[in-house]
Specification:
193 residues; elongated; 6 helices; mainly alpha; 71% helix
Length: 193
């Protein structure tokens, strides 16, 4: 009796069923759609007359007052008028784009669009927004000191470096939140084992 050889390309697995693109990428598509809608909503709300004319200027003034308090801790004799921090050495005005609202909402939109329990989303948004708003105070204070001590670097830091820092901060906070959220989801399963 002779030996029978099995063909080399025979597989014991069933052939893959050709699934439609949407079925394979549904989660990514839904994330992108939800994220896009939430970002568009931010810009619609930000341009409402009451928000743009009343709420937003009040928020900018609050940033100026908080930053000025920090500057006083560093021995500065600055004063606040509206959204402007002024001293004999330098003055800085906090305007749209220097407020950290856009990176905060970018972070929140990414958290809201990601599939996770609402409790974890809320915790993530509170922690992330507080971190981004705190970073914004660091930005304002650092720009004030740059304006006094290294005025040649002020524009570069203000227009090129700090905006990139905020985008990376929002991204890193979001990735950190995803890691925490997944780890938290696995903890009850690990406790049962």
């Amino acid at each position: 009796m002779g030996r029978h050889r099995k063909p080399a390309n025979t597989s014991t697995k069933e052939p893959l069923v050709d699934t439609p693109w949407f079925a394979r990428n549904r989660a990514v598509f839904l994330f992108g759609l939800t994220f896009g809608i939430l970002m568009a909503l931010y810009y619609v709300v930000a341009l409402l007359p009451w928000v743009d004319g009343t709420l937003f200027p009040t928020y900018l003034q609050s940033n100026a007052k908080l930053s000025n308090t920090i500057l006083h801790w560093f021995g500065q004799t600055s004063v606040v008028t509206g959204a402007t921090i002024r001293s004999p050495q330098f003055a800085i005005t906090i305007k749209r784009g220097c407020d950290a609202l856009e990176p905060s909402w970018l972070f929140c939109a990414a958290v809201l669009a990601f599939p996770a329990p609402w409790r974890r989303r809320l915790i993530g948004m509170v922690v992330g927004v507080l971190a981004i708003l705190t970073l914004n105070l660091v930005r304002i204070v650092s720009l004030y000191f740059l304006g006094i001590h290294l005025p040649g670097f002020f524009e570069t830091m203000h227009l090129e470096v700090w905006p990139v820092v905020f985008i990376f901060a929002a991204l890193l906070l979001w990735l950190g939140w995803i890691s925490w959220s997944r780890r938290t989801a696995l903890e009850p399963q690990n406790a049962k084992a």
